[in-house]
Structures are given as structure tokens and as C-alpha cells.
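Note to self: keep these together.
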Amino acid sequence: MKKLLLGSTALVAGGVLAAPAMAADPIKIGVGGYYTFYGVAGNIDPTYAMNGSTTSYKGFEILQEGEIHFIGQTKLDNGTSVGLTVELEGWNPNPGITGQGGVAAPSNAQIDEAFMFAFGDWGRVEVGSRDAATYRMYYGTPSAFIGWGAIQHNHNWQNSSVITNNKAYGRTMATTITPQWQDANRINYFTPRFAGLQIGVGYAPKLNATSGNYGSTGIISGPGNPAGVCGYNNAVNQNNCPTADYAWQDLFGIGANYLNKFGDVTVALYGAFAYASFVPGYGPITGVGVSSPANMITGANLSSWKQWVVGAQFGYAGFTVGGALGYDNNGLGGNYYTGSDNDTRFYSAGIMYETGPWQMSFMWAGFYNDNGNGSSNVTAIAPGSNAQTLSWVNASGNPFTSNSTFFSNNPSTNALFGQEQVQKWEVGANYALGPGIKLVGGWQMYNASGPSNAVSATSWAVMMGMDLRF
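Structure:
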């Protein structure tokens, strides 16, 4: 699970560019990291296609996730500390979920983050493959359920059709800002903390996000997100990056948090905004399976990506209460024909209690997408592969109907409209058995709903596991 809390120091680039200084000692690398596993028992609703075929899910799984971190730093004579971090994934990569037009969204990285950092009394700078500064400054809904929660979870326990097609589900991974923009090559800067206030800014030249949660609307972004592609959101040595390749470019984020204590009450406030431009290519505006920023049959289109999030936490006598709310347009523009957007608005709230070695929490989160592009039904599911045929596409993978009849109440219209949403409830607890060793358990439930069988399903699970930090 990503650690999001920052210390009070951050760094100004001027400190790095000061008069030459020799380090007392060279950089020495240490090893750290984490490993988390869960035994999960519960239920995931099947997907029932219109022709009677189904996809069902096993009710018990063993989940794991971990990283080994190589970290080193030294302190220069002028007071500036300089170092590096390389994070090695502790598991073999998986092929991911096939997205629009049969294009895979592989998770084929062995190195998660790799970046240089420097810090001093004047702040902190990070350069390389790293989460955005604003992402990590978050204070909002607390959780004792390590690896899940409302901040950043590392697992999914939900129907795969919902994960791919429900436009609200793409935001359930986190209620902080830009979780989809993680680890792209970037530069971050944190100011020093003055009177409890700290500001963070960041810039990344490019992002090639995976093409999930677009439904069957006939749009696809970029060349996908395999390792090595410019804008890949894990550590990569990229150069000679093209511009007109249907990707998001010039990612900018700015945020702030405020930390203080008034008597026995602790206060943490957070706010952030992020923006990325969308740069189309020169290919034809066409349908499924071809990179295109817009589809003139369905009216779906990609656009500049905008997000904002605000959050707050308050602590007293072992209790922490908090919440967050935010907005994410998912990089999607308003539909040309319906005139409605595809924006997701989300809200979360929770309470956590800590006493001795125990932490316990309860949280709720809701995610609501306006669904201007509409939803499609699952008409058939292939045996073995569980590949879906959606009502918006024919055997050639192209959307049915034309734009002249698509939104005119014509009987051949296959779009289904109405809000897509996901509700999440969670109860979690952990117990510290010793330094860096916690026993973790809990219960969670997702209820995904919308106008079609492709975006609707309920899942629940009870879990027990351990979290190791070293």
C-alpha cells in the first residue's frame, strides 16, 4: 500500500544548485519494503448474458502484494541531502484485463518507482518515476484496513465486467487525486511547511493510460500502456516521444495541506487540482479497435483530463474522523449527441479508533458517473475465455446503427442511459504483533449499479491476513 503522509520538510531546487559541496560519505543503499497477503472468502455476482451464457467467480482466493525497496542517501556539507529510491515488485506481472478493441492493458512492470530526491530546510524535490506530489499529500477518509481503504487499494474483489465497463468503478481505487497518473516520469516540488501549511506541485510530460472504463463506445486512447511506451506509468527510460498519439500530455497538479493541533484536537485539511491536455493523432475518426479521440457513430470522445479533491481529518482521544469529496471527468468529453458528460463525482467518510496495538475503522464511499455515453448490455459470453459480446458492437467489433438513428428512439438503438454508480462499505481492523508485523482483517461490500447487466453486480468478502513492513 502506498504511503501518503509526508514529513514537514520539502525541498527547493535552489538548494541542489548551490555552491559545490562534497558529501562526508558516499551514498549507501539500504533495503526496505512491505508484503501483504489476504485469505478472501465471499461472493461476486455472476454476469448473465442475454443469450443465457454466464461468467461466475470463485468465492475464495489468496491475494498477495509486496515490494522490495532499495533506498540510499547522503548529506552534503551545505546541508542538502541527496538520494535515490528503486522499488522492485514482489510478484510476477499479470496480463491485465483486455480493454477496448481487444487491446490488452498489461501490468508488465517489475520496477514500480525509481527516482532521485533531494531535501533540506528549504523543501524537497523528486525527479523520476514517482507518484504526484498532490496524490501523497492527501488527508481524508481514514482506514485500518491495510491494502484497501479509500486512499489507495492494491486489490479488486468485483465482477470483471463492472471493472471494465462501469465508468464510476474506475475511481473506486482511491479518493485522493490522480490515482490513474501514478508513477509516470515527473518532477515534484514540496515547499517547507509554514504555520502548518505546505504546498506541493508536480509536472509530467506525458501519460498513456490504459483504455478501461470506456464501455463499447468506439474510442481508445494511445498505443496502450505496455512497459517502455512513452508516458508509461511505471519506471521507464523514455525518449524521442511522439506527440500526436492520442495520449495525455503536460500533466500538472497543485495542492496543499494544513496540519495543526488545537488543545487535544488534531486537524488536517487537504485540497488539490490536476489538469492534463489531450493530444489526438492523425488517424481516421472511426470505431472500436482503432486509436481515435472521437467516434461519430456513438458520439463518445476523449478530452483534457480534469480532477479536483478536498478532504479533512480530525483526531481526538484515539478517534480519527474524516472524509473527502472530489470530481474526475475521466479524460472523457461530453457526448456529441446526448449533450451529457461522463464525469464522476465521489464522496467518502469514515471513522477510525486506535488504542495500544489496535486500530479499527468503518468507512463508506460512493462514486457516481453521469453516463452521457450510455451503457451496453452483455449479449453473449464466450465459453472458456469469458470474452463478452456487447450490444453496441456487431461481430466485426463495430458499433451498431449510425449517428442519424443512434439517439432518435429508433428500435435499433442499443444504448442504455441512466447513472452508473458504485457504493462501497468497509469494516477493518489490524493488530500489531510486533515491530513491522500486523495481523489484519475485515469485511467489505461493493454494490455496482446502472442501466445494463455489463455495469451492475454486487460483491462482498471477509478477509484475514498479515502486513509486514521492513
